[in-house]
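Protein: Lipoprotein
Species: Labilithrix luteola
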Amino acid sequence: MMLKVFRLAGAVGLLSLASVTSLAATGCSKSYIPNTDVEDTSENRKVIAFCEDYRHAVEDKDVGRLLKMASPRYFEDGGNTNPEDDVDFDGLKDFLTSTFVKTQSIRYEIRYRRVSSDETKKVFIEYSYSASFRIPGLKGEEWKHTVADNRLELIPEGDSFKILAGM
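Structure follows.
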Protein backbone atom coordinates (compact mmCIF):
# COMPACT_ATOMS: atom_id res chain seq x y z
CA MET A 1 0.00 0.00 0.00
CA MET A 2 2.77 2.38 0.95
CA LEU A 3 4.53 1.73 -2.36
CA LYS A 4 1.34 2.63 -4.24
CA VAL A 5 1.10 5.91 -2.31
CA PHE A 6 4.73 6.77 -3.10
CA ARG A 7 4.21 5.94 -6.76
CA LEU A 8 1.06 8.06 -6.80
CA ALA A 9 2.81 10.92 -5.01
CA GLY A 10 5.72 10.65 -7.45
CA ALA A 11 3.35 10.70 -10.41
CA VAL A 12 1.52 13.72 -9.02
CA GLY A 13 4.86 15.44 -8.42
CA LEU A 14 5.95 14.77 -11.98
CA LEU A 15 2.62 16.05 -13.30
CA SER A 16 2.94 19.17 -11.16
CA LEU A 17 6.50 19.74 -12.36
CA ALA A 18 5.38 19.25 -15.97
CA SER A 19 2.50 21.68 -15.47
CA VAL A 20 4.73 24.36 -13.94
CA THR A 21 7.30 23.90 -16.71
CA SER A 22 4.58 24.09 -19.35
CA LEU A 23 3.10 27.25 -17.80
CA ALA A 24 6.51 28.88 -17.57
CA ALA A 25 7.26 28.09 -21.20
CA THR A 26 3.92 29.33 -22.53
CA GLY A 27 3.89 32.36 -20.23
CA CYS A 28 6.99 33.70 -21.96
CA SER A 29 6.03 32.82 -25.50
CA LYS A 30 4.42 35.11 -28.06
CA SER A 31 0.89 34.56 -29.23
CA TYR A 32 0.11 34.72 -32.93
CA ILE A 33 -2.91 35.80 -34.93
CA PRO A 34 -4.69 32.54 -35.84
CA ASN A 35 -3.60 30.98 -39.14
CA THR A 36 -0.64 33.37 -39.47
CA ASP A 37 2.98 33.64 -38.35
CA VAL A 38 2.29 37.21 -37.17
CA GLU A 39 2.48 38.25 -33.54
CA ASP A 40 -0.94 39.04 -32.09
CA THR A 41 -1.04 42.79 -31.43
CA SER A 42 -3.86 45.25 -32.02
CA GLU A 43 -1.87 47.01 -34.78
CA ASN A 44 -1.01 43.72 -36.53
CA ARG A 45 -4.68 42.65 -36.36
CA LYS A 46 -5.64 45.92 -38.05
CA VAL A 47 -3.06 45.32 -40.80
CA ILE A 48 -4.15 41.70 -41.35
CA ALA A 49 -7.82 42.76 -41.45
CA PHE A 50 -6.96 45.28 -44.21
CA CYS A 51 -5.03 42.60 -46.11
CA GLU A 52 -7.96 40.19 -45.80
CA ASP A 53 -10.22 42.89 -47.26
CA TYR A 54 -7.73 43.17 -50.14
CA ARG A 55 -7.72 39.36 -50.58
CA HIS A 56 -11.52 39.27 -50.73
CA ALA A 57 -11.56 42.16 -53.22
CA VAL A 58 -9.24 40.10 -55.47
CA GLU A 59 -11.46 37.01 -55.19
CA ASP A 60 -14.56 39.12 -55.86
CA LYS A 61 -12.87 40.88 -58.81
CA ASP A 62 -13.96 44.15 -57.21
CA VAL A 63 -11.93 46.58 -59.31
CA GLY A 64 -13.50 49.64 -57.66
CA ARG A 65 -12.55 48.45 -54.17
CA LEU A 66 -9.03 47.50 -55.31
CA LEU A 67 -8.51 50.95 -56.82
CA LYS A 68 -9.78 52.60 -53.61
CA MET A 69 -7.27 50.51 -51.64
CA ALA A 70 -4.37 51.60 -53.87
CA SER A 71 -2.51 54.80 -53.15
CA PRO A 72 -2.35 57.41 -55.93
CA ARG A 73 1.43 57.05 -55.34
CA TYR A 74 1.26 53.32 -56.17
CA PHE A 75 4.44 52.17 -57.90
CA GLU A 76 5.75 48.70 -58.67
CA ASP A 77 9.22 48.34 -60.20
CA GLY A 78 8.87 44.67 -61.11
CA GLY A 79 11.84 43.82 -58.89
CA ASN A 80 14.40 44.74 -61.53
CA THR A 81 16.08 47.70 -63.25
CA ASN A 82 14.04 47.42 -66.46
CA PRO A 83 11.63 50.38 -66.49
CA GLU A 84 9.42 48.74 -69.14
CA ASP A 85 7.65 46.55 -66.57
CA ASP A 86 7.16 49.31 -63.99
CA VAL A 87 3.55 49.96 -62.98
CA ASP A 88 2.22 53.19 -61.47
CA PHE A 89 -1.36 53.91 -60.37
CA ASP A 90 -2.53 54.54 -63.95
CA GLY A 91 -0.88 51.31 -65.12
CA LEU A 92 -2.54 49.43 -62.26
CA LYS A 93 -5.92 50.91 -63.19
CA ASP A 94 -5.40 49.92 -66.83
CA PHE A 95 -4.44 46.36 -65.85
CA LEU A 96 -7.40 45.95 -63.47
CA THR A 97 -9.96 47.32 -65.96
CA SER A 98 -8.66 45.49 -69.03
CA THR A 99 -6.87 42.23 -68.16
CA PHE A 100 -7.86 41.42 -64.57
CA VAL A 101 -11.62 41.71 -65.22
CA LYS A 102 -11.38 38.85 -67.75
CA THR A 103 -10.17 36.48 -65.02
CA GLN A 104 -12.76 34.02 -63.73
CA SER A 105 -13.20 31.83 -60.66
CA ILE A 106 -10.43 33.34 -58.56
CA ARG A 107 -9.31 31.57 -55.40
CA TYR A 108 -6.65 33.50 -53.50
CA GLU A 109 -5.26 32.06 -50.26
CA ILE A 110 -2.71 33.92 -48.15
CA ARG A 111 -0.44 32.82 -45.29
CA TYR A 112 0.83 35.96 -43.56
CA ARG A 113 4.46 35.54 -42.53
CA ARG A 114 5.61 38.89 -41.13
CA VAL A 115 4.46 42.45 -40.51
CA SER A 116 7.05 45.17 -40.02
CA SER A 117 7.37 48.92 -40.43
CA ASP A 118 10.08 51.49 -40.97
CA GLU A 119 10.83 55.01 -39.80
CA THR A 120 8.66 56.49 -42.58
CA LYS A 121 5.63 54.58 -41.17
CA LYS A 122 5.44 52.29 -44.20
CA VAL A 123 4.09 48.87 -43.26
CA PHE A 124 5.47 45.76 -44.97
CA ILE A 125 3.49 42.52 -45.07
CA GLU A 126 5.40 39.47 -46.21
CA TYR A 127 3.22 36.56 -47.21
CA SER A 128 2.97 33.38 -49.22
CA TYR A 129 0.02 32.90 -51.51
CA SER A 130 -1.69 30.29 -53.60
CA ALA A 131 -3.79 31.58 -56.49
CA SER A 132 -6.02 29.54 -58.78
CA PHE A 133 -8.00 31.17 -61.57
CA ARG A 134 -9.43 30.73 -65.07
CA ILE A 135 -8.48 32.97 -67.96
CA PRO A 136 -9.62 33.05 -71.58
CA GLY A 137 -7.10 31.29 -73.82
CA LEU A 138 -6.66 30.21 -77.41
CA LYS A 139 -8.39 26.88 -76.68
CA GLY A 140 -11.12 28.30 -74.47
CA GLU A 141 -10.72 28.79 -70.74
CA GLU A 142 -7.43 27.82 -69.15
CA TRP A 143 -6.89 27.10 -65.47
CA LYS A 144 -3.79 28.64 -63.95
CA HIS A 145 -2.29 28.00 -60.54
CA THR A 146 0.59 29.77 -58.89
CA VAL A 147 2.27 29.62 -55.49
CA ALA A 148 4.74 32.32 -54.52
CA ASP A 149 5.92 34.78 -51.91
CA ASN A 150 5.06 38.46 -52.09
CA ARG A 151 5.20 41.67 -50.09
CA LEU A 152 2.58 44.38 -49.80
CA GLU A 153 3.71 47.87 -48.88
CA LEU A 154 1.15 50.00 -47.07
CA ILE A 155 1.01 53.56 -45.84
CA PRO A 156 -1.35 54.56 -43.02
CA GLU A 157 -4.21 56.81 -44.10
CA GLY A 158 -6.79 57.89 -41.55
CA ASP A 159 -8.06 54.80 -39.73
CA SER A 160 -6.93 52.48 -42.52
CA PHE A 161 -4.17 52.04 -45.09
CA LYS A 162 -3.40 52.50 -48.78
CA ILE A 163 -1.35 50.06 -50.84
CA LEU A 164 1.88 51.58 -52.20
CA ALA A 165 3.18 48.43 -53.93
CA GLY A 166 2.70 44.70 -54.17
CA MET A 167 -0.65 44.21 -55.86
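Remarks: Confidence is low (pLDDT under 50) at residues 1-26.
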